[in-house]
Amino acid sequence: MFKLRLNYLIIFLTLSLIVSCNKSSNKSVAISEEQLIQKALDIHNRVLTLDTHADTPLRMIQPGFDMSERHDPRETGSKVDYPRMIEGGLDAIFFAAFVAQDIRDDDGHSRAKNLCLQMIDSIVTSAERNSDLVGLALNPEDAYSLESEGKRAIYIGIENGYPVGNDLSNIDLFFERGVRYITLVHSSNNDLADSATDPNGSEHGGLSDFGSEVVKEMNRLGIMVDVSHGNDSLFYDAISLSKAPIIASHSNARAITNHDRNMSDEMLKLIARNGGVVQLTMLADYLREVPPNVERDSAIAALRANMKQFDEMTQEEQRSARNAYQELNIKYPTPAATVEHVADHIDHIIKVAGIDHVGIGCDFDGGGGIEGVFDASEVMNITIELVKRGYNENQIEKIWGGNLIRVFKEVQAVAKKIQAQNI
Ligand SMILES: [Zn+2]
User: Fold this and answer.
1) CA of 160 to the centre of ligand 1 (A)
2) What's the 134 CA to ligand 1 centre distance in angstroms?
3) pLDDT tens for residues 222-255?
4) Concatenated DSSP letters for 159-223?
5) How far is the CA of 229 from the centre of ligand 1 (A)?
6) Distance between Cα 83 and ligand 1 center (Å)
7) Are 271 and 355 in contact (CB under 8 A)?
8) pTM, whole model, 2 decimals?
């Protein structure tokens, strides 16, 4: 199915190029472009392609949502299902059990933990039901063995440490359920750490005392420490405390797009020294800057003021919210974020940190999706752009999964050492 669709893509791109090149009477360029795209698609097919961040479990827990069905992204908003992973040649993915930040008391923590476990169950159940297409993956090597069986690897992460509550033993529980990274914080501060986007600013000066214990426990068990969504102090605290390399599962380069969610050059250099990895995300606001537009900003603020949190909406409410945003986008158009922007960020991170410290974490079903990489079926366009920019197969292999797998292995090796010392 993947090959069939690629053939259609090649025919379409070739025809488009021939038409455009005939206009300038330069057929030799058409041939080389065609070869370049074929070369990119062949590389895409050969290397392990791993996406470290998708919020798809939010959909998996909805009654009737079937991962083995192909969904129309424009109609449903859904960006990932197994048929589209196959079409896009996406071999492995981390599904993040995401729990939005809420009240930080015992009841809140207990609700968050239950919801988190429900999402983890939904990932496991979906993988078991579709064992002809996918397999649950727990270790780095699993991605390669499942790929060789023609199946996609499904890893589990947690986005937001809120479900950990104040109970360190939950880390072990989550590990036993298959969780292999935890994003310490989300859009507001929690009991573990400070967020980059909390309107009240820093609360703990980075990691809290409990958050530090959480990082040590993650190191001991072999769970990757994810600093995406954290404020800068959290990044510096986590990278100096962690005994294993850290990850940013979905963040971009601040020098290219000035956003608090993105990583400064100083951070990128530290990630390189730490041996960690920054996974590029397909979130438009983190990929390109939009010229200020007061009218648009106030229209969005007015819309948001009357809206519930997206994850608290019914499906019908989500649909009408999407329509309302679409109307605003038509009324106040912004420059599209494209795959060229993605490659600009990759170029920059490589310039600052090196080829071994960048990867891909699209954030599909969590706001990710841009022109050319709108959903999982289009991720091969990243590879095409990288080949156009002169990246070779070895470099693309590192970007698309090799780097993350290296970090994952190192995190497990450090855990083994810590456990051996404690015996
Ligand atoms: Zn996120």
Assistant:
1) 9
2) 24
3) 999 999 999 999 999 999 999 999 999 999 999 9
4) E-SGGGTT-THHHHHHHHTTEEEEE---SS--SSB-BTT-TT--SSSSB-HHHHHHHHHHHHHT-
5) 7
6) 24
7) no
8) 0.88
